[in-house]
Each structure stands twice: as C-alpha cells, then as structure tokens.
C-alpha cells in the first residue's frame, strides 16, 4: 500500500496484490538474468545482452498466436513458444508476417539458446519474465478476427463498431489486428465506444462522442428510433437511465441495437433487436421483441381458407425460428424472445436484460500473491 498526500490529507491507495507480486517476481528475474549474463555471453558468443534478448523476445509473435491465444501461466507461455519454435525449424523457408525464416537459421538460433546449462536457464527465465510483463494482455479473452467487428442499423443507415479501427487504402474500415489485445478498455462497453466511435464504410471520419450523454442521445434518437418499435424505444430509455445510475458507466456493456446478420454487406437478411456481449467472457445474448402484430399476425383471414391460414402461420413461425438458429450458428448468440405477455411490462423485461449488463469486469487472475505467500 502506498501513500498519496494531496491538499492536506493522506489517502491510502489500494494496490492489487497480484500485480505487486508479479512485478516483484519480474524484478527478481531481471536480477537473475544479470547474474547469468557474463557466463551466457561467453557461451553464446554474444557481446550485447539486448541483442541476445531480441533473439528470444523478437520471435514471440512469430512462434505464438498472440492475437487470439489466451495463455494463463508462464509454463503455458513457454510451452507455446517452444512448440512454435519446433514447428518453424521443421519447415524450411517458413514465413511469418511476411518475414522468411530458413530452417538453418532457426536451428542455429535454437542451438545458441540451448548450448549450455546457463543459456538454457537464461532462455527460460527470459520467457517467464515476458509472460509476467504481458500478463494482463495474455490472460484476457480476445475476440476472434471474425468477431472483432460489429455492424448495426438498417440499409443505408448502418454503422460499424470495431476494436482498433483504421481506414485502409481501399476506402474501407478494418481492425488493426495486431493491436486488439492491447485495447485499453473493456471490449464492447460504453468506454469502448467512447474510445473508437462508430464508423461508416467509405467515410474516413469516425462518428465520435465527447461524453456518455452524447452517445446515449445518439443511441436513442439515431440508432433505435428508426426501427419504429415503441418497445425498443422504451427499453432504450431504461438502458440510458441504467447507464447513468452506475458508479462506472464506462464499464457497462453496450446494448447493441439492430445487429445485422450479414455484417457490413449492403443488403441485410436479418436484424436482431438488441444484443449484449460480456466484456470479459465475450459470451453473447440476444433479445428479440416479438409482438404478434408484427411477427405473427395474418391479414385478410376472411378471404383465406383454414389451410391457407395455417400455411402462412407456419411460414411466419419458421422464419422467426430460422432467424434465431442462424444467429446462433453464425455468431453463437443465444436469444431470449419476449412476446406480447412480457411486452405488457417493458420494465420487467429490462430487469431481465440488466442481469446481463452487470457482466464480468475482471479477467480470471492467477493468485500470484497467494503463491508467493506459500513459497
């Protein structure tokens, strides 16, 4: 615990014991590496420690899928690194990120790193320290490339939510995939959107929001209102009140409106009324408001036979069921359906939605402080 003195009073600021323990162990490893270096320098033939470190650390992204792989321990990190190193050595002319690596060069590097007991020890300690230094990024669940962008809205009024948006040379928005794991905010939250804004294909200027209130106003007036559904407007209003009442409104998951099934394709097939993505587990749940008047009603029944009415009712049912199956198959979205009986009280519906808005705010942490205490 450290002391902060400001304006005549003393504030005891809490520290994360796990982070403190990780930092302490990282410093210990740095000290151990310094002690090993003189012998490692002799054994490896390297005069410069930074160059030797680069021989190890510079290949981490080559040997490990750091964009998507979730790694929970130093042992797992080392295992992934060594596995990737082995595969690379076995494939002559192997290429990663546009950089070719010959099997001969990689074998020579491996021989250098494992030449003696000292070089092996240094090699493994360096990888342990790398894991500790990048711990928060490595243990964090990250969206797959396919799940790292969301497109919402109706035809000719569609917007994209990306994690690390950049406007490419072809005039389209895309994610900078190498930076997704470094994104500083919780994924798919109010804070996420305030950081990235919304994007429109073909337009290099994102739509940004100066405050939470600015975004919530845009959410209700531009994103939700065009649907024409009074139920969606009521849910949206309750969501805005919920966000404003929270101690950390930036950490509240987005209530994503009009999620497009075909993403950024111009012609869409379906839209899901609302969706919430847990910022840590990345689990998705959808909410479909299905009043009979728009989802099941059959017009002009007096002019139709019972058989025709039944056939039309079946088509309506199959269409709705097919939509939800398709969202699950493509996006793994489990959808809750609210019909007229529930829609009579949108407050109760929002109470149910709000349980998913509580979300998860912290990634699973290894208890470094307890491990340290035990040892």
Automatic annotation (TrEMBL):
Keyword terms of this UniProt record: Isomerase, Plasmid
Protein name, as recorded: Topoisomerase II
GO molecular function: isomerase activity
Keyword Isomerase among record annotations: yes
The species this protein was found in: Tritonibacter mobilis F1926
């Amino acid at each position: 615990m450290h002391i902060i003195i400001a304006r005549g009073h003393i504030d005891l600021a809490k520290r994360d014991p796990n982070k403190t323990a990780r930092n302490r162990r990282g410093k210990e490893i740095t000290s151990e590496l310094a002690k090993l270096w003189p012998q490692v320098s002799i054994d490896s033939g390297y005069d410069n420690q930074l160059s030797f470190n680069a021989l190890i650390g510079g290949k981490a992204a080559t040997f490990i899928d750091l964009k998507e792989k979730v790694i929970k321990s130093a042992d797992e990190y080392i295992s992934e690194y060594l596995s990737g190193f082995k595969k690379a050595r076995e494939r002559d002319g192997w290429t990663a990120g546009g950089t070719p690596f010959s099997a001969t060069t990689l074998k020579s590097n491996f021989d250098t790193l494992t030449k003696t007991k000292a070089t092996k020890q240094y090699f493994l300690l360096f990888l342990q320290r790398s894991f500790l230094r990048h711990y928060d990024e490595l243990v964090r669940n990250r969206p797959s490339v396919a799940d790292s962008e969301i497109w919402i809205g109706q035809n000719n009024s569609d917007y994209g939510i990306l994690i690390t948006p950049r406007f490419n040379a072809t005039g389209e928005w895309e994610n900078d995939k190498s930076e997704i794991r470094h994104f500083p905010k919780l994924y798919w939250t109010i804070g996420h959107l305030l950081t990235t804004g919304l994007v429109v294909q073909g337009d290099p200027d994102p739509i940004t929001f100066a405050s939470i209130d600015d975004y919530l106003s845009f959410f209700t007036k531009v994103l939700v209102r065009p649907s024409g559904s009074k139920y969606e407007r009521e849910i949206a209003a309750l969501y805005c009140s919920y966000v404003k009442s929270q101690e950390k409104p930036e950490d509240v998951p987005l209530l994503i409106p009009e999620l497009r099934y075909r993403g950024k394709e111009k012609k869409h097939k379906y839209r899901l009324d609302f969706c919430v993505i847990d910022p840590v587990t990345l689990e998705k749940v959808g909410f479909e408001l299905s009043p009979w008047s728009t989802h099941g009603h059959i017009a002009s029944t007096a002019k139709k036979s019972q058989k025709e009415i039944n056939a039309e009712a079946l088509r309506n049912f199959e269409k709705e069921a097919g939509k939800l199956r398709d969202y699950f198959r493509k996006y793994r979205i489990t959808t809750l359906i609210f019909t007229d009986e529930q829609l009579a009280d949108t407050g109760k519906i929002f109470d149910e939605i709000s349980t998913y808005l509580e979300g998860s705010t912290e990634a699973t942490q290894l208890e470094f402080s307890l491990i340290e205490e035990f040892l």
